[in-house]
Each structure stands twice: as C-alpha cells, then as structure tokens.
Hints:
The chain has three helices and twelve strands. The chain starts with a strand and ends in an 8-residue tail after the last strand. The strands form two sheets. It has a six-stranded antiparallel barrel with strand order 1-2-5-4-3-6. About 5% of the residues lie in helices and about 40% in strands. It has helices at about 30, 75, 100-105, and strands spanning about 5-15, 20-25, 40, 50-60, 65-70, 85-90, 110, 120-125, 135-140, 145-150, 155-160, 165. The longest helix has 4 residues, at about 30. It is mainly beta.
Amino acid sequence: MMEELTVGKLVNTHGIRGEIKVLSHTDFPEVRFAPGKKLMVIPADGAPKFEVIVDSSREHKGMYIVKLQGYTNINQIEKYKGSLLKVPSDDLVELPENEYYFHHIVGCEVFTEENPEQPLGTIKEILQPGANDVWVVKPATGPDILIPVINEVVLDVDTKAKKIKVHLMEGLLP
Length: 174
C-alpha cells in the first residue's frame, strides 16, 4: 500500500454551490489545488476514501476555496467537513537543490565529521522557530541535541541512505 501525504483539510463549506474551504497543509497549494488535479478524500467519519478532481480553486483569507468536479451544491459536500485531502507519496513536487521534505529528513541518522562511524543520534522532529529550521536529534542516551539547519553546520545530506553529516560548532552539544 502506497503512503499518502496530507495536503489539506476540508474545514467548511463556502456558499451553496458545492465549494469547500480547504486549510492547506502543503507548501505548494497552487500545484495541489490546480484544476484537473486528483486528490484523495479521507472522510472524517471513517467511510472509505475516494478520489476527486479539482475543478477550480482560489486563495481566500489564508485558505483555499476549492470546487470539485461533480459537486454542485452544499448538500453534496457538507458531509465531508473535517475530511483530509491526500496525494500519493510519489506525487512530490520537485524541490530545489539542498531542500528536503520533512518526511525524508525525520528518521535520518546524524554523524559528525570528526566521527563518521559513530552516529550522534536520529532526527526525531523538525522545528521551525524562525530564520532557519532546527533538527531535533535523539541520541542513544542523554538529552536531545538541537542542530540548526545552516550551511556551516549541515555538511552532507543523503536521504536515500538516511545519513546526514554535520559539523558541530562550539556550544551545540549539551
């Protein structure tokens, strides 16, 4: 079974002609909600998932107003409020060099340039506090290690091998 990535959540209806407000969970809403794009609806009530095709969409007050093909009135779409919109994990938007999807980074082992054989730990989550992301590394023992995602620290990322090489600047280790 192929993994699916969440790209949005149906939060409410919009008007009476079958449009729905979508809270975007993607960095590429203009791609995901483009006319003709196929999406999987995962109903909040546990009903079987099903495929829909985007007829039109527009950004509105931080959300997307999406019209799905075949849905022409509020009664047809209202029951799907709270449902998730997903795409297959192989339907990824290509990223620029040195940019990665979170699900490619989480779970990677981190190694230092000084000790490339002994892992420092495994990335368990990614924080986004502001200027740059921060990788939270869980070592075998001890407290979590916070690694700023900056060129001076992150030296090499191999998502296929799930290995990352870093330069530990002074003060990074607890």
